[in-house]
Amino acid sequence: MSSSEALEQAVRDALRAPSIFNTQPWSWRLDRDVLELWADRSRQLDATDPYGHQLLLSCGAALHHALVSLAASGRAAEVERPGGGGDLLARIRVVGQQDVTPDTMALRDAIAVRRTDRRPYADEAVPDDVLDALTAAALAGQVNLHRVRYDQMPMFAVAVAYAARAQTDDPAYLNELMRWTNRPRWSNDGVPPATAVRRVPRRVAVREFALTPHEGIPVKAGGDLGAAYLVLHGPGTAITDRLRAGEALSAVLLTAVARGLRVAPITDVVEVDHPRDLVRGLLPEHDEPYAAVRCGYPVDRTELPATPRRWLREVLRGRK
Amino acid sequence: MTTIATITEALFHEAVTAAIRAPSLHNSQPWRFRLDHEHDAIEVRADPSRILPVTDPDGWGMRISCGAATFNLRLAAAGRGQPLAVQWLPSSSDRTLLARLTPASPRPATEAEQRLLRAVPRRHSNRRPFHAEPVPLAARADLVTAAKAEDAWLDLVVGVVPVAAVAEIAHAANRVLYRDPAYLDELRSWTRHGEQAEDGVPAEAGGPTAEPQDLLPQRPFGDHPRAPGRDYEPEPLVGVLGGGGNSPVDQLRAGHALQRVLLTITDLGLAASMLSQPIEVPAAREQLRLALGRYGMPQMVLRIGFGDPGSATPRRSFEQVVQPE
């Protein structure tokens, strides 16, 4: 496999990255052994994500997926993150070979099976050594991970509820949600109702993708007692900081899945000003919260269907 | 006397828009505002037609509400860099004139003012059950400080026995009030069921129907059974707010301080509802004062906790509360 083939495979794997409303707001350019990641601003959500923070987070997750894929194919890569405000977010250059570790293979395998699982999780607690591994995964990308403490849970739950209320009171948000949960099949993006869950009382509310109570997968009420709620945070608010936060998000999700956990990112709480301030108050140093993650063991072990992804040729331009 | 107007129409509009978000008994909104061009001042006036004759015969609730509205008004002006000085009950002949606000030295808004101002549109009473978790200590300290900053006191009632004692006083007051059919009629006449209204309390903003195990009495706006397992929090954080005395100026000041406490609660991500029944019944109020060991007079009882977002109540528009020239 040549370098450019490895890079093309990396783009294919990066398509599986999670993104806000599954908008897949990225495009890639390949020139021999250099791969560029560009933000696709035409896919930015104007009401949900007016500043493009979630777009950068999604692109960061895609970048991390691509790097995991490259490492798993035995390639050593250099990454440059220009920042600066342009849409060019990262340049990946293959610089040689490296050994493939079992951990890398486990992450690569997690890419294919990771789903955003919005169902309630089991009462079995996430063990400390797994949480330590998740923290290490985030720190490797220079992003901090805070576990919401038991005494902080009510504030976190209330902040999420306030964010949900602010958004569902906003007609522009509802329009956007309606649009991205009802995409035509050929568009290969958006959140199909089949992956949404029915409304049940939760420890922390989940974003309502199902607009009517009858849509979505039926789930049992309660649960989530063993779930861990984690917040990715750091001091910086520049473009590269948010890109790195997305990379760390992907690292945390894939590490958790590799360890047998189910995962669901929570971003509505950082999309609205006041709830974001409330979450900031829970963090050491009052850092900027980039995103939150719920993880835990499944109650219902049935596999969820994969959400659609665009074709490689739709996101990749350039020559081998 | 003519001067260059410091209080512009735009400032007046913005300040009044914030002022009308203040709470009032049964959401009766007993206030009017006037821009006094000649003296470069804003007047806060009582609206006598909106004072509740049965629930609030002495105008206590009206003064608490108008004091709270005055706080919002001054906060919005300070947010625009133009703080306003307040003079309570400036006229001995005109008793509906509650406060006159005049320009103080301009200065940029403080961080705290900006935070409280952002909380103004989000604040509303939450009469539903709160989460059972206790309010963090740091937040409690912030609330006590907020009351002190406005020359009032906030006593947090801590522990099962003291809370039960306050609850007993509140229930006793509630029983006295509910024996009066006129009181219940007034309550019913301010409860709104689905119709488009600009005042009163929509039934959906009320709490679930009272049940015997409830610790604190909530006013029954509307009638909805609670979801199973959604009882009121077993150990609510109860705060009693008061000031030095019980003159009309003391009541206006207490309302002013109350609003700062309520906005601080909102800014902290907490929720609150108010219990005025123990204040409305003189004997209960005296009992409450003695129970707290205070010389000053209690002016409002608050229930504070982590609440899921509720719904805001409607308000009359700017045009409806502004007195024509």
Quick rundown:
With 320 residues, chain A is α+β, with helices and mostly antiparallel strands.
Explain what you see.
With 320 residues, chain A is of the alpha+beta class. Chain A has 10 helices and 9 strands. In chain A, the strands form 2 sheets. A 5-stranded mixed beta sheet of chain A has the order 3-4-2-1-9. Chain A has a 4-stranded antiparallel beta sheet with strand order 5-6-8-7, sandwiched between helices. The mean pLDDT of chain A is 92. Chain B is α+β, with helices and mostly antiparallel strands and 325 residues long. The model of chain B has no long low-confidence stretch (mean pLDDT 91). Chain B is globular and about 60 Å long. In chain B, strand 1 (31-36) and strand 2 (41-46) form a beta hairpin. The interface between A and B is medium-sized, with 17 and 13 residues.
Query: What does the largest sheet of chain B look like?
Result: 4 strands, antiparallel
Per DSSP, the total helix count of chain B is 10
Compressed to H and E, one letter per element, the order of chain A equals HEEHEEHHEHHEHEHHEHE
Mean pLDDT of chain B: 91
Looking at the structure, what is the overall shape of chain A?
A: globular
Strand content of chain B: 15-25%
Gap between N and C termini of chain A, in Å?
12 Å
The percentage of residues in β strands of chain A lies in 15-25%
Strand order of the largest sheet of chain B: 1-2-4-3
The side-by-side strand order for the widest beta sheet of chain A comes to 3-4-2-1-9
The geometry of chain B reads as: globular
What oligomeric assembly is this protein in? Answer: heterodimer
Count helical runs of chain A.
10
Q: What structural class should be given to the helix and strand makeup of chain B? A: alpha+beta
Which residues of chain B form runs of ≥5 with pLDDT under 50?
none
| Rg measurement of chain B, Å | 19 Å
User: Low-confidence runs of chain A (pLDDT<50, min 5 residues)?
Assistant: none
* Counted beta strands of chain B: 10
- Biggest sheet record of chain A: 5 strands, mixed
In helices, the fraction of residues of chain B equals: 25-40%
